[in-house]
Amino acid sequence: MVNRKQLDPEASPEAAYGARMRRLREGRGWSQEGLSGRVGCSSQHISAVETARKSPTLPFSSKLDVAFGTSGSADSFEREWREIRHGVLLEGFPEYVGYEGRAVEIRLFQIGIIPGLLQTLDYARALANGDVWRGSITPEQADERVSFLAQRQVELARARPPMVIVVMDESCIRRPVGGPAVMNAQIQKLIEFAALPNTVLQVAPFDIGERRPFNLPVNLLTLPDRSMVSYAESHSQGHVDRESTSVLPLLTAYHQLQAESLSQAASVAMIKQV
Predict the structure, then answer these.
(1) Least buried of 147, 211, 215, 253, by fewest C-beta within 10 Å?
(2) Residue (of 131, 125, 160, 169) closest to 146 by Cα position
């Protein structure tokens, strides 16, 4: 006990994870060796995670949940690991991305910024740097956000890619992000996206006014079994829904949005004007 290191849960998310792990372990009267036997690792590894010298992993977190009886709870170590791993993401978004990677059809609507799957990394970096400048995330979290987006884009470029249908509010292409060079490259990427055989790109112009059915971004996924998942978010949280009674009305509204929007040819013409 003379070498016991004092923990500061406020130092980092990893430190908070380690401190909670030690608190639960000691609350059960277990030594580090006692816990290591329950999760199948060395006591040195237990010590390193508790003192934030090593970051936890998903398998380790799952084993902790089994040992402490926290599996599937709001306080599970697996959930805390996901918050550490995707700490800059809204609640619910990592779950959505899991479905996105299996979807056979993706429908997106976005306001104000280019949808993430269509962003160049320079455009995404400019958005992340804006959040760093405002103090809402750290430079390290900005790097993680851009890397996470790049990973999503790569995973969708598979042998049999999903059909991707995108409707963007006109504000997405009118709002300058990152300066002229970044925007020019971003506009070019949109034009190239529209030319792909598995994509549809439409702009919802300002003049449709109150006929635009959505005032927040909306994502709709069709999974291989033809079931559907929706994801919608506010400024503070995201929500995944698989209930058909709430997802199907969104699909109907999306069809209405497409009918009011410009055709792909007219949308590309507007994008080229920008």
Answers:
(1) 215
(2) 125
pLDDT in tens, 12-62: 778 888 999 999 999 999 999 999 999 999 999 999 999 988 888 888 999
Measure the CA angle with vertex 33, ends 30 and 36; round to 5°: 95
Strands, E assignment, 132-235:
163-169, 199-204, 218-222, 228-233
Tokens of 24: 């639960």
Q: Which two tokens stand for residue 219?
A: 């994502």
Q: Report d(CA 179, CA 127) in Å as an integer.
A: 11
In this structure, the strands spanning 218-222 and 105-110 are: antiparallel
Across the range 214-230, mean pLDDT stands at: 94
Which residue type does 203 have?
V
Q: Which two tokens stand for residue 262?
A: 């410009």
Which secondary-structure segment (H or E) carries 109? strand 105-110
* Three-class DSSP category at 72: coil
Q: Which domains does the chain have, with CATH numbers?
A: 13-85 (1.10.260.40), 93-273 (3.30.870)
Contact assessment for residue 76 and residue 65, using Cβ atoms and an 8 Å cutoff: yes
pLDDT for residue 235: 63
Strand-pair partners of 51: none
What is the distance between the alpha carbons of residues 20 and 29, in angstroms, rounded to a whole number?
14
Check: CB of residue 186 under 8 Å from CB of residue 113.
no
Pairing mode, if any, of strands 228-233 and 218-222? antiparallel
**Nearest to 216, CA basis, from 93, 106, 109, 96:** 109
pLDDT bucket at 194, cuts 50 / 70 / 90:
very high
